[in-house]
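// run 5 | inverse folding | seed 20
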């Protein structure tokens, strides 16, 4: 005979287990189904992004390219294309796949969210550059249209992400692609970097290691099937052909390249004054904002006044205030010498030389 207490315990456990499994929205079954739906949504949205990028770059979009781009087998890619067609988001003709109007609009919303989030990570956080893309890949699937619009407003409706990609507007407008790859330039050509491809990660890390970022100006020294050698800020750099093809530039034939690296605040001797020319383009996010907040803007005179016991940090006088910068921060601020005979407004005048000591007469002395 079953004890009443034991039966009550079994019933209570069964009830708790059923609740944990079947509870609406929060139960294990609901969460599992939600995860499955999210997986399908992620794959659909990733596929739409791939098709849009192919369309934008005028590249063929096929079943094979989709499988390669999403890292799945051809059979899985085929089933995904079938699902896209069922939803009215894509059309398939043989192995070629293209977006429909609704599919393009959906893809643009995902791309917009991704690039806005990368812009946010670059401008408002200390997340490493190499991690922007991966974090945006997660966020792009979790944000509603209203949340994306709010993020855009918070950032001031930026036009480009930190890699140089245009950010689609809320109405789905995106400018056409411009520029050519670095491998397409001829020897001696000058150009301005407008975009760095952030995939695959290994190639992007190589570009970061070279100190490249959109806005930098370069001049090609040599182009060969194995790579491109170019000058950047007076220094020679070499990229292999694959990495060089991940750099998009706009030719600028009349560009004047400096013959040597720019001088920075880090090179100022104590008591020496320099005038801020610009903050290096590679300095982004919180690091750039901090320098701007400290008054480090073009045309501002800065004087090195004091150096730490170990040589770092250095104190600088700027706009009537004293700030301290580490060497790596000061090295991001490019300077020019002050104009000859010009005064440096905002800087305290150098203290006058103290007068030579004089002997005071003692009372009663001759």
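// decoded
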């Amino acid at each position: 005979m079953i004890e009443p207490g034991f039966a009550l315990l079994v019933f209570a456990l069964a009830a708790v287990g059923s609740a944990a499994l079947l509870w609406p929205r929060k139960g294990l079954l609901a969460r599992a189904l939600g995860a499955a739906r999210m997986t399908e949504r992620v794959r659909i949205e990733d596929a739409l992004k791939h098709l849009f990028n192919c369309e934008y770059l005028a590249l063929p979009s096929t079943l094979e390219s989709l499988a390669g781009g999403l890292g799945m087998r051809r059979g899985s890619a085929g089933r995904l294309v079938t699902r896209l067609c069922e939803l009215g988001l894509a059309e398939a003709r043989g192995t070629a796949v293209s977006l429909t109007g609704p599919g393009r609009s959906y893809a643009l919303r995902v791309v917009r969210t991704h690039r806005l989030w990368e812009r946010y990570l670059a401008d408002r956080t200390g997340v490493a550059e190499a991690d922007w893309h991966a974090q945006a890949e997660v966020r792009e699937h979790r944000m509603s249209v209203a949340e994306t619009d709010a993020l855009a407003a918070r950032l001031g409706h930026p036009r480009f992400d930190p890699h140089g990609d245009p950010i689609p507007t809320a109405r789905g407008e995106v400018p056409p692609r411009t520029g050519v790859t670095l491998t397409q330039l001829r020897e001696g050509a000058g150009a301005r970097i407008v975009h760095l491809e952030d995939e695959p990660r290994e190639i992007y890390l190589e570009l970061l290691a070279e100190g490249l970022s959109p806005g930098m100006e370069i001049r090609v020294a040599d182009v060969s099937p194995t790579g491109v050698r170019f000058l950047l800020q007076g220094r020679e750099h070499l990229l292999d052909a694959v990495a060089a093809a991940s750099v998009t530039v706009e030719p600028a034939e009349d560009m004047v390249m400096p013959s040597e690296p720019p001088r920075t605040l880090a090179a100022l001797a104590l008591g020496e004054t320099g005038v801020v020319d610009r903050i290096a383009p590679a300095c982004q996010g919180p690091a750039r904002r901090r320098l701007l907040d400290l008054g480090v803007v073009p045309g501002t005179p800065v004087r090195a006044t004091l150096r730490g016991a170990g040589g770092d940090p250095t104190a600088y006088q700027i706009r009537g205030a004293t700030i301290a910068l580490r060497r790596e921060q000061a090295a991001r601020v490019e300077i020019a010498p002050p104009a000859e005979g010009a005064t440096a407004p905002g800087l305290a005048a150098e203290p006058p030389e103290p007068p030579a000591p004089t002997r005071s007469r003692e009372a009663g002395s001759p």
